Amino acid sequence: MIPRILLHGPGRRAAVPTLRAMPFLPRFFRPLAAWACLGLCGLAASAADAPGYRFSPVNQYGINITAAYWNPIIAYVSEKSGVPLQLKIGRTSADTTAYVLAQEVEFIFSNHLFSPEREQLGWRVFGRRLTPPMRAQLVVPADSTVTELTQLQGQEVAFAGPEALVAYKLPYAQLLARQVNIKPVFAGNQDAALAQLFNHKVAAAGANSQLAEGYARREGKPLRVLWSSGPLHDLALMAAAKVPDKDVKAVAKAFIGMHQDPRGRDILEKASQQVGLSAEAYFIASDGSEYGAYRDFYRSAPPALR
Question: Do residues 82 and 151 both lie within one domain?
Fold first, then answer.
């Protein structure tokens, strides 16, 4: 079963990407991206008309790469669990989080719900992706003349979006703490923010280290880190309170057991390769207790970043 991808912004007609719109993709990646685009043919259908549940991962990459990474994984989980899932992603990470807050989706991969207010919405953590610790960062091209955060005073700095905890809120809080006033530019996702950086449209970019390192490897564009946070766990797999326990358990079992099944492991390794993750990246069980660092941030963050 190939899940359909629901891709649209509020009040906008969906647009279907084509290979012509993917010149940035490596040649070996284009067949997988083309397959992902075929999944976009059902865009006109509304979420209400589709069977099963909607799964919304935060837009960590551009739309085509996000779809190509998640589509094979969701197809496997749907088949193994017997619980149909379909990918629903917005045009930006903020759009996707808006779907979550509007309760338009039932399963998510996110770290946007650990503030005290959002934890009251009842989302349950049942797993997380196991990867090396990631860090919030402020980065510049390796050959940039910028070597200190103070040099960013008054400059434009690109971020994925206003909802990005690791790639925006943590780095921006650090700049505020050091009284470095910058002009935030929201690019929509991490790849787009780094593209603006290398196109010399901004002086620096806020980054999730995992995504920045993957981008640097894919594009062959090295980065210099100006500031880095402490270690953080990768994003959480979560289910809405309205999803029956039996469906949550079935989906969780499929995600968590994926790397132990030869076919599932092969799917994970191929998907991980495309986004610059290690072949060892897979999903494990979690009760959400590992996300204390995220919760601590919201307790002390400037009001505008909570």
Answer: no
